[in-house]
Each structure stands twice: as structure tokens, then as C-alpha cells.
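#dry-run=false #mode=assembly
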Amino acid sequence: MATITVSKKEFDKNVKLSGDIGEKLMMAGLSYDTINENEIIFEITANRPDFLSAQGIFRHLNAYYGKEKGLKKYKIKNSGHKLLVDKSLPKEWPYAISCIVKNLKFDDSRIKEVIQIQEKLGSTLLRSRKKGGIGLYPLQGISFPVTIKGENPTKIRFRPLEFPKEISGLQILSQHPTGREYANICQDWEFFPIFVDAKEKIMSMPPIINSHELGKIDEKTTEVFIEATGPEYEVLKKAMNILVTSLANMGGEIYSMECIQQNKLKENIPNLQPEKMKISLENANKLIGLNLKEKDLQELLPKMGYDYTKGTVFVPAWRTDVLHEVDLIEDIAIAYGYDNLTPEIPKVATIGQESKIEKLKNKIGDILVGLDLLEVSSLHLNTKEEIKKTNYEFKDFVEIEQSKTEYNVLRIDLLTNSLKILSENSDSSYPQKIFETGTVFELDKSDKSETGVIEKERLCISLIDEKANFTELKRVLDYLFKMLGKSYSLQEIESTSFITGRVGSILIDNVEIGVMGEVHPRVLKNWGISFPVVSLELNIEKLM
Amino acid sequence: MEEKIIEYLSPIERKVLPNISENLSIEEISKKSGADNTTVLRAIDFLKNKNLVEVETKEKKVISLGINGVYYKKKGLPERKILDSLVEKKSIPLSEIKNVCEINESEVKASIGTLKKKCLLDIKEGKVILTASEQEAKKETFEEKLLKTLPRDLDDLQPEELFALELLKNRKEIVEINLAKSVNLKLTNLGKKIAQQDLSEELLEQVTSKIILSEGWKGKKFRKYDLQSQVPRLYGGKRHFVNQSVDYSKKIWLELGFKEMVGPMADSSFWIFDALFTPQDHQAREMQDTFFIKSIKAKLPDKKLVESVKKSHEVGVSGSKGWKYYWSSEISKKVVLRTHTTGISARTLASLKKEDLPAKYFILGKVFRNETVDWKHAIEFYQTEGIVIDENANFGHLLGYLKEFYKKMGFEKIKFVPSFFAYTEPSVEIQAWHPERKEWFELGGAGVFRPEVTEPLLGKPIPVLAWGQGFDRIIMDAYAIKDLRELYQNNIKQLREKPFWNK
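#status=ok
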């Protein structure tokens, strides 16, 4: 989610809203983080990049609450200029489009606003520029036609924006701050894209950085050349539409350019032709649960910035989220007002049912609580070191990639966390008797499971006290099995985690379901525990 | 008066009282009376309540270890780690100190500051450089020396130890200075009188079988109890408070006629993302937000479903335009720790038969995020979610279910505002009024599954109402917990004392 900061003064100048503004913003589908007398900080969701500019927000609110209903129309004049996309462009970055906006009045805050739109589009819709980059240049100083082509990065030489000297394309990636930030996009490419004007002057190296000489916007700029480049043509057009209509809302005049792609496809950019989409009144009523009439659609759709005639909706060219009729229907519901809808529970009878395994877990919990045991709840992730403290020879970890914390493997048992908890609670009074039920994970070496990870539901009980011993825990296990109407047997085994001769497998019908024993002092020392501990861990699926 | 009080004296009080005199320590009284220290202390407490003894307490300051102090005493101070690493490497970039020395950001700041002040190191061009000699760097610092000797009385500290204390005091939870008490006992006038009396009269203490059967109580008195006296605490066994609240929510779902779903925590991207129409270049599918499991690949479900999901993404189904990109089955096989429980909802939808409808399901389970942990971010938390699959369901019904569900959860005043979730349309956010904080807060999200989700899973776009929410905030609110980490900290003392879930 991106945030957009709009000055309250600018907001009030453009949108006439009274009363509880926050409430009105939310009901119109705009969420916000902060409203105060200086600013409004909007939270923009991924579906509405057209709200990444204050102008886009104003456009929506003026349709929803104000008089500017329906599809906003923009005048486009033809600049007569061309953009040529050369075949040498790297295959990873094949498309480019451009246009011109004139009659702009840039002051400091306007420049900031435009940079904010450019940056936010770059980080969201264009996925940190991986799906494209946008650049703005003062029109003055550019000779047409403009060409974009591919060039060997060591041969590219120009002075990047706000940099003291001329350096090569490759050096930009290591020396210029913006270059370093976005180097991951193009560092492996054989050729880098560059814009050059008719006089062969380098304008920029998209999507990284503009030239300082030709690509620096300042307060004197009134006319701009705008380009968008990247791997997905349609996305570039959307980004361009959002940006130029915002500039037009600031008073700019749009001039189109003829952009000729590598495959000779020609299109005048920007292309603000609305897309036509069918909508069925019946479907809308069925999905929302209303009984709207045709005339309601004529009223509601224009509130959301659409034009509508007879079952056809004209979708603005800056909307990226309208994939399906349901997207229009949601907008109808928002226009109708969520607070005007009547919540209603249909009379459909269904039978509730708890899952068997969860039921069993609860039952086990109830039984153990009756023995004064305390339930704990630990995380599903461990560190390798933690697991090794308890399980000496273990190596088949289910590992996490690039964990941001030290927890980088899935837990293989509950015993590890159980000992960890006891080690952290030496300041609580003894005896301590704890249990946990939960999922443990194991790599599937048989390759039979769907996910490659086998998940098992386990129970772990640990008792710690000066005199904690096997007998004490066996009494607990006896009681638990008796209460569940099951029986078990024990078979002596060897284990590095427990004391030899005081550890056994727990078996049901000769099938091993777990282990119980006095924890080896070596393990206790690893954990910094200075009292004896007796523990058991078993698979509870077998108890169903 | 004195007579009466004597009837209340327990055997231990009788034993201890005559042995109390000024300037005797507890140990000495214990020796004289033949009772152990704890017994003497208990007796004194009882006697004090009866105004027989005056207890004068003196306070002295004791330095003890804080949480970090305990850790550092065991593992060494962070500056030791920095110095050791510097001795080995001579210079380390400031930004890497954290990783090289395995200490956290605030420790880096504090310890570099301290070391700089001592002229042991310096920072040049973003690099931390050892300026002291190796020998000097290896020398034990005053702080380290002091730390080893704690706990101590403040009055006993030498000047250089006081200096070290000042330095440690300014850092987070390394040392604590607490007041410790020493006591001086004095008999009150009443106490003196009683002490001189014969305290050997036999009062009955415990009811025994013998006393009952032979009526041995006849003609004798039972010692009277002080009903106000403190008793040792008792801790019962208890379910973890998070599980208590989870259980509470589960009952609500069951009352509403929902069936419980269970499913894997480590699941394929197919179920977590693709089946829910989340494009493969979506941010949630990057490693910086989600836990990916190393080097394993999941098996995809049956071919027909996979083809249908692929089509849904690439060109759209059910009249949708789709996302228009090449959908890769390889990306879909990546296994992740579920980021939501909706993957299980998707699995359920795919398993439904026509005759199962209408149907309602819910799940309560842990979900995971790749986060750095602090007071408001956790790597795992509880989520609950429900789905209603019904040919005739609509958005108004969803709002109806939500109203009822949240009412049962204890939120009477809620409102619905437009929202966005990638796999629902229309979508709605539920906000509830917080009567104490006097503000609306976000409770959960809901919506009707997009046809791009339902058509592949159900064979046709049947409406599926869905809602869900994180659970941990509700628990935190109920228990007035400010730090998210407290939920799974398993502090036994806290767990023992935490009241039951009270809704």
C-alpha cells in the first residue's frame, strides 16, 4: 500500500466537502491515515494507481460528491513529433512511448507533486521500475524526432542528474545513488536503453536516470516531454494516462506524439479512448442484493467517473483495475453507498461441525488442565542451533529463505520449544508443568506428499522440579490414555536427548507414536536448565 | 485482653515470641527458638499483625542485573563482540557491524558510543576502525569487571566501579538499582506482657481422626485462626489465553452453522496465491514479505484445475480480461508458509460437490509473514476466516453475516466501508467503535470472491462470501497487552496469573 500526502489547502481548493470529511472519503472508497489542518495522508490500494496523484483523487471526489459526473474528457492536440523505437533496444526492455504537455506552471510544490506521482507509480504500478520507468524533461532543448535505442553500457557517456561529472552507463550503476538503487533491473543486460534527440544528444538512460543537461525539470519549465519505457506496453500506457491527465488537471495542455514501436506498430500517445464494457443490470442486482432500475445505473455509474449508455459502460483510460463486470458492480455499490445497503442473513440452514483433530486437541487440553498442567503456545519457527541443542544428530531441516529474523527453520518437534520455555522461566516458582499441542514439520523424502513437507499434530508435556522423574510423568500419561479410553505400551530405546534406561517409545498396537523419558543432563546444560526435566512427545493423530 | 490474644497464637508464634528481643537478627532468633528462618519470618508476620511485634525496616541500595545484564553476564557485552571482531578484522563497515557481531541496532549504537568515548575505536568513512592497540582492546573493561561481581550493595562499590556503574546505568536494562530491606525487631508493650505469660497451654491445632472418634475436643479449645492472614498462592492448570480466545471464536462459528476446515501451514503458491487470482509478480509473492521454503517443489493439483487457473490469469475466465501475462507453473510450485488461511478456503472450494451446497466453512489458524519482529510486528499470528457458498448469496447477505458474527464477538457498533482485496469484489472493510478509545478501528476484511477465483475452483462462478481477520489484536485489546511479542512469550508467571478469557 502506498501513501499520498496532499496539503489540506490544496485539497480544500479543489474539492468542496463539508461535515465529517474522513467519513466522506471512506464512503467514497478512499482510505486515509491522517487528516489534520495541514495535510491529508491517503492510503492508496494497489487497484487504484490513478489515486496516486492528488489530481486523480480530486477527479474522483468531484464526480462522487460534486458536479463533475461521468467520464472526464481531455483535449489532446497533435504535436506533429515522432518517437522512434530502434531495433537495438535490449530485448528485456522493448517498448517506449512519449508525449508532450505544455502550459504548465511549476512552482516548488508542483514539482514535488509531479515527482511524487512519478515515484509512486514507479514503486507500485511499475513494481519498483521492474515493469517500466517514467521520465520527464524540459521540452526546450530537445530536437525531434527523439529515438530510443540500445547501446553498450561502457560506451554510453553523459552527466547523470545531480551528478558532478560525465560518467559511463556502467559507472552510473555503481556511482550514482539512483543507479545503485535500480541497478538490479539492468545490470545483466548486454545493452542499455538510451533516449537521444535528433542532434544525437543523450537525454537519459531509462529506467535509471535522466541526463543533467536535458532532463532536469525546474521552476522555469513550462513544457515537458514525457516518456515511459518497459517490458509491458499496456502498463506503460496506463502509467502515462495517469500522469498526463494529472498534469492536464493542473492546467497543462496535452500534445500527442506518434510513437513507432520496433514492430512498426504506430499509436498516437496518449490514447485516452475509454474502453467499452458491457454490464447487466440483473447481474448487478443479483450480486449486490438490490433492486436497481436502468435509471439508477445512469445516475450511479457517472458518480464513479464512468459514462454509461444502454448496458455499455465507458471505462476511463486511466483505470487499471476494471477486469470484469464485477469491478463495475462494486463501483455501483460504492456509488449507492455501503451505508445505504441493508444487511440481511438469508435463512439457509447448515450444520456446524468442529474438525476432529481440533476437537481432540481441546479434549487433551481439558484433561491435562485437570492435572494442573499449564498450556503454552510457541512459534512454529526455530533456529538450527535451538534444534541442535535438543537433537544432536538432526540435519534434515525444512529451511526458510531469507528470513528477516534468526528463525530460519520450521520446528521439527515441540520438545525444543518446551525446553526453551523452561530455560526462560527459572524465575517462576517450581514445580512447572507445561504442555503444548501443535504442528511439527518434516521434509518428505518419499516424494509422496503434495507440498514436500509432512505436517504432524503433536502433544508435548514437560515437568520440571528438583525431583521430577519418569514415574511422575508416566502417571500423567496413564491418566491421559485412560481418560481417552486408549491403552499404550512402552519399549526401551536409545536416544541422545534422554538418559539411557529412562527413555522409551510410546506404542499403540505396537506402532510407535512418540517418546517419553528423563531429559539428558547434557541437553539440560545446553539449555541452561539446572533442574531435572521429564518430557514426552507424541503424535496425537493416532489417538483419534 | 491478653488471654484472648493467646488463643490466637499458633505453635510457631508461641515458640518465637519469647525469643524476640531487640537487635537480634532473624538468624539468631531462629537459632534460639529452634525454628527455621522461613518459619520465624512467618511467625513474625503473624505477630506483627497482632501488634505484638514492631518491625522496623531499613533500606539499602542493591545493584542487580537487568534482563540484558543477565544475558551479557553470560554471553559478554556487545562491545566485547565488537572489540573481538575488530581485533580480528581491524576495520568493519558500520552497516555490517550488526551482522558481523550478531548484535542488534540499538546495541550497536550504545556500544560504539561507549567505545568511542574510551578512544578504543573510531569511525572513518562509514567504517569502524580499531584505534587502540590489540592488547588494550583485549583488556577487560571496568564494566565487564563490575558485571561479573553483581549483585552487590551499592555502598560497597569502589570509585572505578562506580564509574562503570554510571556507564551501565545509562544503557537499556543492564543493571537495576533496587532497595533491599533489613529488619530490626522490637516487642510492643502488649507483646512483652504476653511473652512473659505461660504460652504452653495446649490448644488443639488440627482435627484428627482420633479427636473425632474419641471426642477428644471435649473440654479443650481449638487455636483460633487469624482469618485475614495471607495464604500461599495456588495456581491451577490453564489453557493458554490465546487458545481460550480462539476457542471462544470457534464456538461462534459453530453456533452460526459453519464447518471447520483444517489444512497445511506450508502450502504451494498455487493454493496460497494462484488459485486466488494473485498475479505471479505480486508483491506478496516476494521473499521479503513471505517465507518461502528452500529447495522443495509442490505437486500441482489435477490438470484441469491448473489449466483453468492458468487461463484465468492469462486471458481471463467468466468474461474477465485476466492479467495478460505468461503464467508459469514453476512459480506456482514454490512452497510458502501460508500468508493467510484463504488458501485453505480455496482447497475447500475445489473439493466441493454440487450436492454439498449451500455450505459454510470456517478456519482458525496461524499465518506467517517475513517480518522483523518488534512490539507491533510478529512473524506469525492467528487469523480466522469464514466462507459461505450459496448460489443465491449476495453482498447484502455478506453484510448480514458480518453484523451477526461481530455482534457475537462483542462488537455491537460496526460499520462497513469500501476496501480492496485482490481476490474479492465487491470488497468491504469492517470497522468497530472502540468505546474506551472513542474511535473507529479496523476489525477485518470481507468480500465476494471474484469470478476469476470461483469459476476455476467451483466449475462456475457461484457467489462465495468470505470474511476474515487477524485475531491477535482482539486478544491484545482484551488483555490490555501493548506488545505483540507477549502473546507467544510463554512467561510462566504471567500465564499463571492471567485471568480467564472473559467474553
